[in-house]
Amino acid sequence: MMGDLYSGGGGLFRVSMCGGGAEAREIEQLSREGSQYSLSTGILPSLGARSNRRVTLFTVHCAACFNYLLAARYHDKQKTWIGAVMENFTEQSLWVRYVTSVYWSITTLTTVGYGDLHAENTREMIFDLFYMLFNLGLMAYLIGNMTNLVVHGTSKTRQFRDTVQAATSFALRNKLPAGLQEQMLSHLCLKFRTDSEGLQQQEILDSLPKAIRSSISHFLFYSLVDKVYLFRGVSNDLLFQLVSEMKAEYFPPKEDVILQNEAPTDFYILVTGAVELLILKNGVEQVFGEAKAGDLCGEIGVLCYRPQLFTVRTKRLSQLLRLNRATFLNIVQANVGDGTIIMNNLLQHLKELKDPIMEGILLETENMLARGRMDLPLTLCFAAHRGDDLLLHQLLKRGLDPNESDNNGRTALHIAAAKGNENCVLLLLDFGADPNSRDSDGSVPLWEAMVNSHKPVVKLLSENGAKLTPGDVGMFSCTAAEQNKPELLKEIIRLGGDITLSRDDNGSTALHVAVCEGNTNIVRFLLGRGARPDRADGNGWTPRDLAEQQGHDDIRELFDSHQRARAIETAVSAPAEPSRGVRFIGRFRSEPVLLPGPPPVGPNGLWGGPRSRRRVNDFCNSLFGMMSAVGGSAGEFGVAENGKYVARVTVSCPEKGDSAGKLVVLPGSFRELMEIGERKYGVSGGSVLREDGAVIDDIELIRDGDRLVFTSGTN
């Protein structure tokens, strides 16, 4: 029988403990979390009313289970607290026994004075003693916790009421206008609402380390700031630094964010909502415009350091990012190139507004720039880009490096030459700017002026040492051919460049590029200047191969006709054979006259070394050649001591008033012949014609005694 009682009591105890295990584990976890707080605050505010309820139920449950366990294990069931009122209680159902135990446990805990546990033996007395002592501490615990929760919940409301009362008293005492009083109350109500709803974003960010704060700001606002017109084109580093320093603020409807004519201490970026731009005229506020998400407010006053132009007032609940002027300037000072971009964006924005007020601000800002009174860091590239020679002179006199470059390696001289500003180019050259400086693409100021057809600047740079190196000529010729600009090719020739040279990177020539682009006129021009259709690039492709591969039939025909013309010009015709009345077999060409002087012989009697191809010398077949060979006096008829005749030609230029011509020695290359024309007649980049008007493009086509005519045109 005792075994049955023990089994019944233990079973109830085990079932009850299993039912309360989940609550026990949760209380233990909450207690561990609560231990992280200081004793001054306690764990009570963190647990809250729900935790208090669970602690109470768990205590009642445990007391009921322990009381029943003592009664079930006692040897005399009649002398127990439950046996005294319920005979044969072990025969009752589990539910009846559990409810009875919990009822007396909770009435004892609440101390209502009715149905308390009544100890019948010593064991129960000892347990009830400790249980009631525990109840005293638990009640104090619960009352204190609930009081703290109530006070904590109402403290913000009490503080808000006190703040509103103080603001109202202040407004009445100082007789503030009704509109201003409304703005004060609206702001206080919004602040209370954001605090109560957990929207106090800036307070949370300020409590975090800088790295975490910057990462959060970058995640929330970077994409918005990146689209603002003022920061278009600046570096990612500058944007990241600016976003990290911006403060997010909420403004209720109809609240002034910026006042007209106030000091420019901050400017704002609108995140959500909308604001009105108001201007005061004749004592009446007029709406100048409206700003929406992504727009700026107050930036003109901050950047131009002048009083704010407009009153900025919210139309509805709005969130704005505030950036302090001093912080902004400190960041920009460390990123000079970005400061130039920001100023350009501001000036361009003022021009696009096309408003009389903005036009006046633009004019005033430009005057401040010319006097160097802007706080933003200004560079020579910025002045050159604007074509402001006064500002450029001011900056150069301050000691700025005339060769400073931007992120792309472009100097102020590059920009001034590209824009054709002679005054800026002269200033930079006078202060020691390098006329042959290169940017990251390999471009030089002279080429910038040539591409943009600024001939006075080209002349100015050429006179001050600017030149095109052979490596530049190949690249620039390819660029001119790609852009289908024959005038650029002529300008390169005028400056002494050989447009048949190849690029350094892949061996392509201008003729390769012209064929790929299908520019027939450029191909014809290049062929007339000595370009070779069979010259291979670095990959083994010739212009002729490219024309066939890309199906440019007109260019292939042009190559073929050019080849035939070259063959006709270079062919040497023998005099017609007299008719002898017999069948003519063929035309025979006699051997040229042997020149005096034995050929060099090697040690083994062989020809010493490779022989260069002999150029056809028409003098050997002429009367003078034959006479000199027979007489042996080569020097009398212009034959050099080594047996090679020095050919002579007559050059003239009717355009320059010289029709009679001058007798000169035929140079060794076509380029040297062009230099003779430039030196004697000032003809640069023109053409060389025969007396019958045929264009000559190779020195091999010229014979002794020919009359050559220099012209400035291409035909």
Automatic annotation (TrEMBL):
> Its biological function?
Potassium channel.
Segments forming domain KHA = 648-715
PANTHER family named in the record: POTASSIUM CHANNEL AKT1
Q: Name one Pfam family in it.
A: Ank_2
> Chief subcellular site?
membrane
Residue ranges of ANK repeats = 408-440, 441-473, 506-538
Gene3D superfamilies for this protein:
1.10.287.70, Ankyrin repeat-containing domain, Jelly Rolls
Q: What is this protein called?
A: Potassium channel
What family is this protein classified in?
Belongs to the potassium channel family. Plant (TC 1.A.1.4) subfamily.
List residues of the Cyclic nucleotide-binding domain: 230-332
Keywords, comma-separated and alphabetical: ANK repeat, Ion channel, Ion transport, Membrane, Potassium, Potassium channel, Potassium transport, Transmembrane, Transmembrane helix, Transport, Voltage-gated channel
> Is Transport a UniProt keyword of this protein?
yes
Source organism, top-level taxon: Eukaryota
Q: What does the comment on domains in this protein's record state?
A: The segment S4 is probably the voltage-sensor and is characterized by a series of positively charged amino acids. The pore-forming region H5 is enclosed by the transmembrane segments S5 and S6 in the Shaker-type (1P/6TM) and contains the GYGD signature motif which seems to be involved in potassium selectivity. The KHA domain (rich in hydrophobic and acidic residues) present in the C-terminal part is likely to be important for tetramerization.
Gene Ontology molecular-function annotations: voltage-gated potassium channel activity
Annotated membrane topology = Multi-pass membrane protein
- How does this protein assemble? The potassium channel is composed of a homo- or heterotetrameric complex of pore-forming subunits.
Q: Which residues cross the membrane?
A: 55-75, 95-117, 129-151
Gene Ontology annotations for the cellular component aspect, listed alphabetically: monoatomic ion channel complex
Record's subcellular location: Membrane
